[in-house]
Amino acid sequence: MSGAGSAKRVKQVVVIGGGTAGWMTAAGLASMLGSTGLKITLIESDAIGIVGVGEATLPHIKLFNDTIGVDEAEFMAATSATFKLGIEFVDWARKGDSYIHPFGEFGLANQGVPFHQYWSKMRNDPDVGPLDEYSLPVVACRKGKFQRPSDDPRSVLSTYRYAYQFDALQYAPFMRKHGEARGVTRIEGKVTGVHQDSESGDITSVTLEDGQQIAGDLFVDCTGFFGLLIEKALETGYESWSDFLPCDRAVAVPCESAGPLLPYTRATADKAGWRWRIPLQHRTGNGHVYSSGFTSDDAAQQALVDNLDGKLLADPRILRFATGKRRKLWNRNCIAIGLSGGFLEPLESTSIYLIQEGITKLLELFPDTSDFTVEAEEYNRKMDLEFERIRDFLILHYHATERDDSDFWNYMRTMKVPASLTEKMELFRASGRIASYDHGLFLVPSWIAVLLGQRIEPTGYDWRVDQLDADEIRRHLAGLRTHMDQAASGMDDHGEFLSTNGLAMSAA
Length: 508
Ligand SMILES: Cc1cc2nc3c(=O)[nH]c(=O)nc-3n(C[C@H](O)[C@H](O)[C@H](O)COP(=O)(O)OP(=O)(O)OC[C@H]3O[C@@H](n4cnc5c(N)ncnc54)[C@H](O)[C@@H]3O)c2cc1C
Hints:
3 domains, six-stranded mixed β-sheet, 23 strands, 19% strand, binds flavin-adenine dinucleotide
C-alpha cells in the first residue's frame, strides 16, 4: 500500500475475470459509482471460460439486483430462473429424514419470546405436529406453490423472502449487458503478466497475451480458482478449513426436467458427501460434492448419475477445490472477490452471497485515494467474520448427525468442531436459545431449522413461555397451523406463476 504522503486518487478500477464474480463486481461498481467518473475495465478470457456452476442463491441477491437496477422479469427470463423458498435436506441426520431450511420465520413471536419456544414446550402433544408446519415457506415448498411476499407486516404473507435458481452460463452474460450499458469497458484477452511497484508492492498494471498493458489504481481479482493476482502475484496465502469440511471435489451434470417445478433446492446426503438438485425452467442442475479422501471420482459420478430424475444433457464434469479463504481478501491494492478469495462448499448456496457482500463492503469502504490501509483492514475483518460464520453453519449439517453407515459420516460425527459452534449447539440443547450474532449471514430461524433438522433437541425451553397456559398455547398453535396451510394453498402453482407473470424464458 502506498504511504499517505504519496496518496493519489483512485480513478481506474481493473476487474480481471468475467464470471459471476467479475460481472457482478463490474456491474455493481458501474451502477453505484459510474457517475463519479470512476473508470471500470473488465478483462476476461473466452479461451479460459468460467467455472459454469453456481445456480442456487439466497434472498440477499434480490436486494443486490434491486440496488443496481436489475429488472426482475428481464433477469428471470434471460437466465431461465425459478424462485427458491428454501433448501430441502434429505437423509442428513438419519436416512429417511427430510427437513427444509426456509427463507422465513417459524410462527410469530409472542411477548418477545420466539415462537419455537412455545412449540418446544408443546411438541410432544399429539395435536401440535412438526415445527415445519408453522413456517409458510416450508408449507409452500411442500405444496410446490409460490407467491411474492406481501409488504403488509400484519399479513402472514410477509413472513418469508425468496431467492432464485438460475442458469450460471446465462447469468454472467446478463450482468455483462447491465455493466456495459453503465459504462464498463470490456477487454477480451488472457492476462499473462502482473506488474508491481518495486517499493510499495502495489499492482500497477497487467499485460495481456497480445502485448496490451492495462494500468489501474485498484485491481479486483475475479479469476476464480486461479487467484491470478491475489495468490500467484501477491502470494497472500490460503487458510484451509479442510479438517472441518473435507469435501474437496464435485461432479456436475445437467439433466432434463422431470415432475413439477419445485420452488426449492434439494441437498441429499450421500455416503461421502451430498448431491444437489436445482430446478431451472429448461433443465435441472445436478451435482455431487464429495471428499476424495473417502470415495473415488468414478464412484461419485456413478452415485450422481444413478440418482438423476431426467435424461443427461451433457457429460459429467469434475471440479476440484480447497475449502477455505485467502489470509487477506484485500491485500495491497488488490481485492479478491469470488472463488479467487475462497470457497465454502455450496451446501447453503453461500458463494454468490459472499460475492455480493464483497462488492457491498467494497462500495461502503471505497477509497478516494490510494491511502487505504484502514479501509482494507476493516474490509478483511468483516469478510473474515462472514466466512467464519458460514463455515460453522455448514459444519453443523455434517457434525450433528446420527449416521454411521460410512467412514465419511463416522469422521464427520466424531471430529472436533470450532468452539464457536460447540457453544451454539450447547445453548440450544439446554434451553432452545440461539446466540444471535451482530454480524453474519444466518439469522435465528436458519439456525433453528438446521439444529432441529439435524435432530438436536432442546431439553428445556425459555421459562417465559409459562406465562401462557398450555390450553391457550395449544389453541394459538392450532389456529396458526391452519392459517399457514390455507395461505399456502391459496398461492399459485410455482410453474404457473412463472408462465403467467411474464417470467418464463420464452419472454426473454
Ligand atoms: C461445485 C460448485 C458448485 C457451486 N454451487 C454454487 C451454488 O449453488 N450457489 C452459489 O452461490 N455458488 C455456488 N458455487 C460457487 C460459484 O460457482 C462461484 O462463486 C461463481 O460462479 C463465481 O465464480 P468466479 O466468477 O469467481 O470464477 P469463474 O467463473 O471461474 O470466472 C473466472 C474468470 O476469470 C477469467 N480468467 C481466469 N484467468 C484469467 C487470465 N489469466 N486472464 C484473463 N481472464 C482470466 C476466466 O476466463 C473467467 O472469466 C459453486 C461452486 C462450485 C465449485
